[in-house]
Design goal:
globular; 17 helices; five-stranded mixed beta sheet; 11 strands; 18% strand; six-stranded mixed beta sheet; alpha+beta
Length: 451
């Protein structure tokens, strides 16, 4: 079993947050879980539908299907046909969007409270009877292929990130990008989509979070009316974490048109429920949050080796990765930048953070946490995020106490554990000439010679 997110002795719900979360919970006979939170400050509502499916649930041959299906969900259903979802929602003053990650797919709407029943009708219609046909599949496939070209094939960070994933993970589904491999996207079939829909978009694999100007009792009755007859789907196959232990540094080079070199590095990290996860949050904030943070100050301003530095530590259901991305100056030697980075990380492992760095990181984490919970949309999203990754939305209310209790000894121990060379993978961007520019220059020269 996964460890708890932090030491249970300090896991106390923050009283300020607890006062904001008088949540009513229910589970329908078909397995749909419902979380209702009333807030009558303004006559608006946010509705989030969390499906517990992401790229970790895919397999070779259908990588990218979770993200492709996110697009498919806007293609109409039995009652509301193509393009009707947004038309009806927007005519009621609402707006919608969605996203797919490694561990979840999320759909959300913000709207006036008097449109609640209409929105429940819209959402339940596509959960019950989504339109899946060859034309819709091919149309969305082309949209996703173009998105991949823009975000990965023709983007430096996208290309490096994709290469890095294949270094970090050898067996786990996290090794492929959320958007999927190009040939897999091209070959996903209608049957693949139908099977995926029946399994992962069934009510027993979903949770509704409804926050805002609602009457919980009446809202639950509406949810039962619109969702209650949707049949259960088969239980999703559990994801096996078969990733072997990394026993040495892994390296790769990417050659791509660029003005300057770049580095993307990663270290294996823990799962979201692990007790070290929240300590890594503190380390991340101390290293790169703000212009005075440790790595920004050292690598960008003092040594001027890098133009920018970013640490990306994102929670995941299974053990994730701590990623550092550095854009370098044109004349910077990537190896020297690496040495400077490793030296700073080693200092954290041996000396910890200064008291000012530690307190500043804690303050910023608390501020960002409270800022997220300032709106209906933020609260609904936070509850879903915590429930998928931590096991219960209530664990999110204890985060301030865990952050506040973290000591420099814990920071040093966690940094020493994770920032080791054996856990490290490195991708170096080697700038290459832009072929388009070179061809244009060659063409101009040829034309001049001909004269």
């Amino acid at each position: 079993m996964p460890k708890a997110p932090a030491n249970s002795a300090v896991r106390k719900a923050d009283p300020v947050l607890q006062s904001l979360f008088d949540v009513q919970e229910a589970t329908l006979p078909n397995g749909l879980r419902v979380r209702l939170l009333a807030n009558h400050d303004t006559p608006v509502v946010s509705l989030y539908t969390f499906f517990q499916v992401g790229s970790r649930n895919e397999r070779p041959g259908i990588t990218g299907i979770s993200h492709l299906f996110e697009h498919m969900m806007f293609n109409g259903a039995k009652k509301y046909g193509p393009k009707k979802f947004d038309q009806v929602l927007e005519s009621n003053g609402g707006r919608s969007n969605a996203y797919t990650s490694t561990d979840m797919t999320v759909y959300y709407e913000d709207f006036a409270s008097d449109a609640l029943e209409t929105v429940l009708d819209l959402e339940s219609d596509r959960m019950r009877s989504l339109r899946i046909d060859d034309d819709a599949l091919e149309s969305e496939r082309q949209v996703v292929m173009e998105e991949r070209r823009v975000r990965v094939d023709n983007d430096i960070t996208g290309t490096m990130d994709e290469e890095l994933g294949t270094l970090i993970w050898k067996a786990h589904a996290y090794r492929w990008p959320v958007i999927g491999w190009e040939k897999d996207i091209a070959n996903i079939t209608r049957k693949d989509c139908e099977d995926y829909f029946r399994t992962y978009y069934a009510p027993n694999n979903a949770v509704l979070y409804i926050c805002g100007d609602i009457d919980p009792k009446k809202t639950l009755a509406l949810v039962r009316r619109y969702y209650g007859d949707i049949p259960k789907g088969p239980s999703p196959v559990p994801v096996l974490n078969a990733e072997p232990v990394q026993k040495g540094e892994r390296r790769a080079e990417v050659r791509h048109p660029a003005q300057s070199p770049a580095l993307m590095l990663a270290w294996h990290g823990p799962a979201a429920r692990d007790e070290d996860t929240l300590v890594l949050d503190i380390i991340q904030y101390a290293l790169t949050k703000g212009e005075g943070s440790r790595l920004v100050k050292k690598l960008v301003y003092e040594t001027q080796l890098a133009v920018s530095v970013m640490v990306d530590w994102g929670w995941r259901v299974d053990p994730g990765a701590i990623i550092v991305y550095l854009e370098l100056k044109q004349d910077s030697d990537p190896r020297k930048v690496e040495e400077a980075l490793y030296a700073e990380l080693a200092r954290v492992a041996t000396e910890g953070l200064t008291e000012r760095e530690l307190q500043k990181a804690k303050n910023n984490l608390r501020a960002d946490h409270l800022r997220e919970l300032a709106t209906n949309s933020g609260r609904a999203h936070a509850m879903g995020h915590y429930e998928v990754l931590l096991g219960s939305w209530r664990d999110g209310l204890t985060l301030p106490s865990v952050y506040a209790a973290a000591t420099n000894e814990r920071v040093k121990a966690v940094a020493a554990k994770y920032f080791s060379p054996e856990r490290r993978s490195v991708v170096t961007l080697i700038p290459t000439p832009d072929k388009t520019t070179d061809e244009a220059a060659d063409g101009a020269a040829d034309g001049k010679d001909a004269e």
